[in-house]
User: Fold this.
Amino acid sequence: MGRILRRFLIPGLLLLFVLPLTVAFAEGDGWIIEELKLFSKGVGVITEAYVGDVTPRQLLYKAMKGMLGSLDRFSDFIEPERFKLLQIQIKGEYAGIGAILEMINQQVVIKAVEPGKPAEKAGLLAGDILLKIDGVSIEKKAVGDVSALLRGDVDTPVLVTLSRPPSMQILDIKILRQKIEIQSVHDARMVGKSLAYFRLSGWQDNTSVQVDKALADLKKQGMKALIIDLRNNDGGLLTQAVALAERFLTKGKKIVSVQSKIAEQRKEYFVPQNGSYVNIELVILVNGYSASASEVFSGAMQDHKRAILIGVKTFGKGSVQSVVPFDDASAMKLTTARYATPSGRVIDLIGLTPDRDISNSPDGTPGVDRQVLEAITVLKQYM
Assistant:
């Protein structure tokens, strides 16, 4: 699982709050009760008279999905299994074995095992073909469903039956699940004498902790300038984008303004004290899939002339979604706010225009990364 999880999470680009379900009917909202009577009557008639077998819960889920889907493209009803995945995405960790899966010729195959994780320690290898999980055949199951079977509680065992090429020997391997932290920071390294680079793939609960560790390590190696790669980073938690901006801005600078009907969300975020890396020169790489929290961070850096943005115009997602959990482990994702950059720019459906518009070749085209090369040119004195 690990990196593969993002492929099976909630579709859509996210900028998230998590809200408790506290909305109650106020005095004067009696009309809502009357409308709900109509809905209740409809559910009753369908369950009693429809020729097929349906349950009230099935109808409720469909109704919720229809209501939220009619609002905008980012509001959605999240069924229990998808809600579990969203919680993993937000928290940045899960209990599993640390194997990355892929589908090849209608078979679920181990693409890679993460170093030091339970799958590697138990002897799983890239290329192993999964056949059963805890004795249950996974034939015709999707990769996401198999990933769900491999997850569980920390310190619980899972029995994996696999076929190992080239002999196709059948093996039963018991693996003890452990906490797996999803990495937001990738490829953190020095690319010059005092020029550093890292790629950020998401904005989870643990992102700022991972970034702090990477920055501290790079600083020890002599970092004086930094390239932050936000290409294909489609968002996550607003609070994490704010936290990263705080590392690079001086006290009192505005990071983002959020407009919402919800008082707890309606606020302006300012830097509480000078960041630890205010003297580090910055270049940020963006593309058409840099969205949401990535645009919040990049917009703040651009408005304050704190970084040079290189790449192509970003996605343009200026709305904020709240995740409202329900009692039965399902939830709704509801657009509850919009945001503006420090200078007041509203980028929804517009995006951020880079300071240097540099396109790369289409995916799969051999060649060099022109956007990275431009970033190095900008910061060439640090090479």
Notes: The chain has nine helices and 21 strands.
